[in-house]
Write a structure and sequence with these properties.
408 residues, alpha/beta, Rossmann fold, Beta-Lactamase, five-stranded parallel sheet, five-stranded antiparallel sheet, 61% helix, rod-shaped
Amino acid sequence: MERILLLQQCENPSLLTILRTQFQVQLANTIDEALALASEVDVRVMIYDVTACGPVSFEGLGALMADTEVMTELPLVFLSSSQSLADKLTAFELGVDDYIESETCLEEVCARVSKSIFHRIASAQLKDRLELANATAYTAMSDNSDLGANIQFLLGVNRCDNLDQLGQLLFSSLARYGISCSLQMRGLYEIKNMEANGMAKDLESQLLMQMKDAGRYIDFGCRSLVNYGQASLLVRNMPMEDERRYGAIKDNTFALIQGIDARIKALDEHTKLLEEKEALKKLSRDVKSVMTEIDEDYQRVMRTIVNTVEVMAERIQEKIPVLALSEEQEVFFEETTAQCVSAANSVFADGLKVDESFHKLSKSMDHAINNLDDVEELHSQIAVDNPPEELFSPDSSDAVSDDSVELF
């Protein structure tokens, strides 16, 4: 049996009797008593009976409905002897749930009271469902907002050219969660520890380094440490009292740390490629220098050989008249020296062709080195013309004070 509250300023025994057959009735004789009972006892509906009080007066009803703290959620059934449409409209304007005339049979009165109770139960269930729907919609919107922020972060990661920009981008994304964090990024060429203000703290840096291989998640108190690859994040103020937010922060920070790790690896590979490119450029310059030296030495040797052969031929020609040789012998020596000079000149001509090939190879290497320099200059100009977006806002709302970043 549902519990109801009956307010009777004038006695109506028959109504009280039939109501008690179907409900647990709490009886009140004054408006103050009725309000006090309604605030102390859980009742499904209040019945205000004025059928035995003579002409209808709405002063009491107005005073009753004025207490919004009690009557906002509690339906009121008003029993009156008046059948006037104006009185009914006045009662409904004051906020009654149902208006029952005195000529209505008592069984119907009980039925209409039960109907008001059912309406209240249905309204309460609908309210709960609406609250649940609102909470679900809020959660969905919040999750979508987090997803959008994470996507923007992962897109922005590709524009970070160093670990400082990468760390500031992460802290800018984490500011929306209202958490205080320490970050460690372990590259092949540099280990970077950062707070939201860009500086590093020794205690947090040591903790992150010592626990980088301790597992994916390490929780202690209201602090959580997340490790992934070459990045670690320490969150100091996890919302332990809000389970949904706690889980959302863990999920989203893990996705962000994955992006940090991927970019660190990409920056390491980029640095490796730069070193390899510099090594190739140096090797190309060294080879070109050696080739130039070889070419000069080769030409010098060829010229020396030709000059030596020509000098030898001239000296032989000078001595032939005084050697008392026969005409046949003199012709032999002259033809031999002429052939030697001709052969030496032929070798020198072939050397010029080799020298031309050396020059072509040298020009090709110069062109390749100049192309590398042009690419570097183009990248530098693009960086100047399109500076990276501001990754950290000095707004006071995002600033983290020294007190808020203490670990212990």
